[in-house]
Design a protein that fits this description.
Blueprint: H1 5-8, H2 12-29, E1 35-38, E2 45-47, H3 62-67, H4 73-85, E3 93-95, H5 97-104, E4 110-115, H6 118-127, E5 134-138, H7 141-150, E6 156-159, H8 168-182, E7 187-194, H9 197-210, E8 215-221, E9 233-239, H10 245-260, E10 266-272
Helix pairs in contact: 2-4, 2-5, 2-10, 7-8, 8-9
C-alpha cells in the first residue's frame, strides 16, 4: 500500500491519528517540556482543493467532521484546529502532524520532523516557518529519529510511514523497539493502515518479541476486513502509553467508526502482550 500523505490528507485515518497525537502531546505537556520526533513528516499543510481532492477521501473524513453536530471533546479539539486554518468556513486546508504539533507547542517544547523527499521537505519548511520551536529536516526518518531520540530524554515519537516500501512494517517495529530499549520513558505512537489482520499481527508480534514494554492498540475499522486490497481501517499502536490513553483512544476510534463507518464498522482498543 502506498499511503501518500498528500493524497490521503484529511481522511478518516488522519482524524484518528491526529486527534490521538494531540491528546498524547497535551498529556505529556502536563509533566513538563516535551520533544516530539516525527519520522515521516510530510508537507505539514495540505490544500484539499488540490492533490487531496482527487481521492475524495477528505470528503468522507474531515469534511464530515466539520459538519458533524455532536463531537466528543477529543474530536472537537481536532475540529478546532481545522477551523483555525479555515476562518471562512469549510475544510479546504488541513494540517498535517507537523503543523498541528507546532501550533500546540508550549515554552520549552520542541518538534523535529523528518522528510525524505526534497520537494516535500521544502513544503514542510515553509509550513513551519512561523514556528521557531518546530523544525523540519531532510533525511531517512527511521535513522534520524532514532539518532535524535538517543540525544533526547523521554521524547514523544510518531512513526507514520507512507507504506510505499515492503519493509515499512518491519522498520517501524524495529525503530520503535530501538527507541524504547534506549529510553523506557519515551512514548512511541505508530500509525498503520489496516487491510487484513495477518499483516498487522506480524507487526505486533515483532513488538512483543522485542519486549518493549506496554503496548496499547487502538483500531478503527470502517468496514469488515474482507478485502485486503482496501484500507479497511487504521490503527494507532502506542508503546509505553500514558495513563488515560485507553479511554482517549476509545473515544476517538469509537466516534470515527460510528460516524464515518459503513455497515460492520467497529472500534476496539486492546493491550498486546
Amino acid at each position: 500500500m502506498n499511503y501518500r500523505h498528500s493524497f490521503h490528507a484529511g481522511n478518516f485515518a488522519d482524524l484518528v491519528k491526529h486527534a490521538l497525537v494531540l491528546w498524547l502531546l497535551k498529556e505529556r505537556q502536563e509533566r513538563g517540556a516535551v520533544t516530539v520526533l516525527d519520522t515521516h513528516a510530510g508537507a505539514g499543510l495540505y490544500d484539499l482543493s488540490g492533490d487531496g481532492a482527487r481521492s475524495k477521501e477528505a470528503e468522507a473524513g474531515v469534511a464530515r467532521l466539520m459538519t458533524a453536530e455532536e463531537r466528543p471533546p477529543l474530536i472537537e479539539a481536532l475540529a478546532a484546529e481545522v477551523a483555525a486554518l479555515n476562518p471562512d468556513g469549510g475544510a479546504r486546508f488541513y494540517p498535517g502532524s507537523p503543523l498541528l504539533i507546532a501550533r500546540a507547542l508550549r515554552e520549552g517544547d520542541r518538534y523535529l520532523g523528518f522528510e525524505f523527499h526534497p520537494p516535500v521537505h521544502e513544503m514542510l519548511a515553509e509550513a513551519l516557518a512561523d514556528w521557531p520551536a518546530a523544525e523540519g529536516r531532510q533525511g531517512d526518518g527511521y535513522v534520524e529519529a532514532l539518532k535524535a531520540a538517543r540525544a533526547t530524554k523521554g521524547p514523544l515519537v510518531l512513526i507514520d510511514p507512507p507504506f510505499e516500501r515492503p519493509d515499512d512494517y518491519v522498520r517501524s517495529a524495529e525503530t520503535a523497539a530501538a527507541i524504547l530499549r534506549h529510553d523506557r520513558t519515551a512514548t512511541v505512537a505508530v500509525w498503520t493502515p489496516l487491510k487484513d489482520m495477518e499483516t498487522f499481527d506480524g507487526f505486533i508480534r515483532r513488538l512483543e518479541e522485542a519486549r518493549v514494554g506496554r503496548v496499547l492498540v487502538a483500531e478503527a475499522r470502517l468496514r469488515p476486513l474482507n478485502n485486503p486490497m482496501k484500507m479497511n481501517g487504521c490503527t494507532m499502536t502506542v508503546i509505553n502509553p500514558p495513563s488515560g490513553a485507553e479511554a482517549a483512544a476509545a473515544e476517538i476510534c469509537g466516534w470515527v467508526a460510528a460516524t464515518l463507518g459503513e455497515a460492520g464498522a467497529r472500534a476496539e482498543v486492546w493491550r498486546a502482550g
